[in-house]
Amino acid sequence: MARKTPVLKVTNLKKAFGPVVIVDGFNLEVAAGEAVALTGRNGAGKSTVLRCLIGADRADDGTVEVNGVPVRETDPQIRRDVATVIDDLDFFPDLSVVEHLDLLARAHGIPDADGAVDEVLHEVQLVPQSGQLPGTLSSGQRRRLALATAFIRPRKLLILDEPEQRLDTEGVAWLAARLVAERQRGLAIVMASHEPSLVEQVATRVVRLGDRAEVLADE
Amino acid sequence: MSKKSRKLIRSTPTEPVVEVEASAPEPVEERSFYFLADVEPVRVDERELHQEMKLWRHGRATRTIGQALQDGYVMIFTIVVLGAMITSAVLKAQTGMAGCDTEACASGRLLLPSAMVLACFGLALGVSRMFGPVLASAAEGFWLMDAPISRRRLLRARMRLPIIVALLVAGLATALVSALSGLSWWQVLAWSLAAGIGSAALVAFAASEQPLERTRVVKLLQGVFAAGALALLLVVVAVGAGWLPVAVVADAGQGLWVMVGLAVLAAVALVVLLGLATSRLEQIRRARLLSGGSLVSGMQGAMFALDFGLIRDILVERRMAEKGHVKPTRGRGLGLSALIWRDVERLKRSPGAFVGLAVSLFVPYAADALRMSQLNPMISGLALVAGLVPFLGSLRVITRTGGLARSFPFKTTQLRMAAMVVPAALALVWGVLATPAFIGIAQTGVDRSIGDGFIAALVTAVAGLLGAVRWVTAKKVDFGTPMMATESGAMPPTLIFNLFRGFDMVALITAPLILQAPAYWSLAIAAVVFVALRGSFNMEEMKAEQEAQQKALAAAKAEKQLEKQKIPRPSR
After folding, report:
1. Which end of chain B is least crowded, N or C, by CB within 10 Å?
2. For B226-235, what is the mean pLDDT?
3. How high does pLDDT run on average in chain B?
């Protein structure tokens, strides 16, 4: 059987902060319908790898390609194909929850934006907060809004950094079901997680990072 | 889950391995715990507590005042010399202005200091409402407020600080304006006392309202004083331009007794309100105290980096958190037009921003009336920067972090330009409405032809817009770059430029107009500035692009090398 064309291809990725090498020689291929979970202890480099994958951090060496296109954070094609939920997501302080989702849906050219927003809003259980401004949301609700911003728009690759953070038990169960459905619909997923149940349910492959950080200052 | 993983899970033994428990007992580390003695706590005197806090703070100091003065002697010397020069200039100006008897001087002498008094009142109430005026740091709130101590006794001294600051700042600022407008020294004293004591009384009033968490009256008074100050300034300009007869302005001598009366009234109000505020301090909620404290600490952090954009962000976030909820509106359009339409919707949501823009429109007319036509583009451009910044909220959010920009399927340049559309339209309207001021409609006569006036207004509007864009999109100070050695210690080079960001663009674009060069020079500079600002020269990004191109070039070369491999000739 012919091997699927990878949505994400990472070759020999290297990233160091000063003398501390976080990852070196990291390779990864993720095809459509695959979900890869990055695990490892705190500081193992999961978030750093994810930031390099989306171009938020520049890798010291190696290449990252999405659908054969080298990743650049500012490339509109990459922005169109890759949905991310990592820690640097900001919100407009004067736009309500529903207005954020409506704006994203329309910016991505979704014709029935109202319908899509209603659906996602119900799913993330933020209907009562739809008119609330982001500054007044609880941390869990902000997380749900961040996840909703990823689900409201078209995407080929979903990159999530500890998506279970601040979600309640019910929320984690919903997220697992949603990600499984996304994967089954052919989406490629890369996520970093510390939640075993989420990894077990969603991931088709687990990559354990860690014990790689080396201090080269003494050399 | 992959087949391999499933296989691994299936092969894992399900029964617990008992031997592990028995053979490897975990060594238990012995710990000792502290428990509070089971006795009634001793009653603490708040004064002693304050003394203790003072002692701790002094204990943390690493330098004495003498050492600090020794280290900063150049700065102190500079301040003393500059202070002496300013005082001398003020004295000279006061003497000069006192002899001036034109309409502009007559109106300015009475109305400018009076406008300053009202502005001080408005500002005192605004700042008090923003910070508290009584506040406590997060640490104090965390452990001190939980203790069984009297909040009134603990916070009484703290409440006096903003009142004293208001008294001094308002008094000194009004004294400066009064002296510069040519009032006699007795009149200067009366106006300063009215402003200082009145502001202090208003801060005490805000403090008395704080424990009850009422802001309606404070807001109303703030609006009334601000509107009054603006109205007085309008009269000054109108008289100066000859639109109103000088007879509408009374003699400054009559105003003296009004100000003395106001000062006496304010002093009585201060005493009463101070007593009222002190008695209510016991009821103050901890959350109300801490919000002011956290705002101060956030702003302090931003001030250390001279990041005024961040200060504004903090204030906007706070205002929005207070607002909490809005009536959602449906968006329109698809793609970039959805972003532009959302900005149009925003205009309805924050009508307060139009007040600032309207005030900035008043500036070119005031500059024209006060015979400053030559400098008008620069002065008005700077005012427009302040007026337009509140309309550039979406541009600010898109540029401050990459996360949100990454969610939109557009180039950064496209996003920035979409976020500039509505402010650009407002700037254009501002330019059209300000055109008469640039043509010259004051008593001094026509300064420019209609065409030249329109172009000057347009250049000013563009300068204001680009100045505001620069102010909003400037990057944070990078403390990782090599530092500059200064008298105040090591400093990143960009820190100094933060002070001038936005204003530099206005100066650059309006300079040809001020130097009476053809206007197309200004437009050409504006075009270059626009190209730079819409994409903002991102060195990191450019470097990354360059590296990617180099890699592609190297790969192409390697491929060519393979193609060019020589086939050895068959040997005979």
Report:
1. C
2. 87
3. 80
* B286-338 pLDDT, tens digit each: 877 887 888 888 888 777 777 788 888 888 888 888 888 888 888 888 889 99
Q: How distant, in Å, are the alpha carbons of A106, A109, A152, B175, B410 from that of A117?
A: 10, 13, 7, 58, 21
List, in order, residues 6 or more apart from B343 with CB less than 8 Å away: B391, B394, B419, B421, B422
Evaluate whether B386 touches B463 at the Cβ level (below 8 Å).
no
Q: B413 near B469, Cβ under 8 Å?
A: no
CB contact under 8 A, B342 and A203: no
Q: Which of A113, A112, A83 is nearest to A100 (CA)?
A: A113
Residue of B120, B286, B264, B287 lying closest to B203 (CA atoms): B120
Say whether B551 sits in a helix, a strand or coil.
Answer: helix
Residue B107 pLDDT > 70: no
Q: List all residues of chain A from 102 to 121 with a beta carbon under 8 Å from chain B.
A: 102-104, 106-111, 113-114
Spell out a b/e string for B24-58, using b for 16 or more CB atoms within 10 Å of the CB, else e. eeeeeeeeeeeeeeeeeeeeeebeeeeeeeeeeee
Contacts of A104 in chain B (CB under 8 A): 407-408
Task: Please tell me which of A144-158, B67-81, B280-294, B552-566 the model is most confident about, judged by mean pLDDT.
Answer: A144-158
Burial B496-509, CB ≥16 within 10 A → b, else e: eebeebbbebbbbb
In chain A the beta strands, taken as DSSP E runs, fall at 6-17, 20-31, 35-39, 61-66, 69-70, 82-85, 157-161, 188-192, 205-208, 214-215
Three-class SS of B171-194: HHHHHHHHHHCCCCHHHHHHHHHH
Residue B27 domain-assigned (yes or no): no
Instruction: Find out whether B288 and B146 touch, Cβ atoms under 8 Å.
Output: no
Q: Helix, strand or coil for residue B31?
A: coil
pLDDT score for B5: 46
Q: For residues B306 and B499, what is the distance between their CA atoms, to the nearest angstrom?
A: 7
Helices (H) and strands (E) in chain A, counts: 7, 10
At B470, give phi and psi (nearest 5°): -65, -40
Does the distance separating the beta carbons of B411 and A76 come in below 8 Å? yes
Q: Which of residues 151-180 of A touch B (CB under 8 A)?
A: 153
Question: How high is the pLDDT of residue B10?
Answer: 47
Distances in whole angstroms, Cα of residue B248 to Cα of each of B103, B106, B110, B251 = 11, 11, 11, 10
- Cα B305–chain centre separation: 13
Residue of A nearest to B544 (CA): A58
Is B275 found in the same domain as B395? no
**Do B263 and B149 share a structural domain?**
yes
Residue in A69, A91, A133 to test binding to B, most B beta-carbons within 10 Å: A133
Q: Are B146 and B289 in contact (CB under 8 A)?
A: no
> Which residue type sits at B505?
M
Residue A82: closest CA among B319, B408, B309 = B408
Q: Who's near A81: CB < 8 A, 6+ residues apart?
A: A66, A67, A155, A156, A157
Beta bridge partners of A61: A14
Domain A6-89+155-215 = CATH 3.40.50.300: yes
Cα separation, A162 vs A39, whole angstroms: 10
Residues near B509 by beta carbon (within 8 Å), at least 6 away in sequence:
B381, B459, B462, B463, B466, B467, B522, B525, B526, B529
Tokens of A58: 């520049």
This prediction's pTM: 0.78
Q: Domain range spanning residue B157? A: 98-304
Q: What is the pLDDT of residues B412-435, one digit of tens each?
A: 888 999 999 999 999 999 999 999
Distance CA B12, CA B7 (A): 9
| Residue B478 and residue B354 share a domain | yes
Residues B172 and B266 both lie in one domain: yes
Domain assignment of residue B561, yes or no: no
Q: Which of A92, A106, A131 sits opposite B328 (nearest CB)?
A: A131
Residue B501, C-beta contacts closer than 8 angstroms, at least 6 positions apart? B470, B471, B474
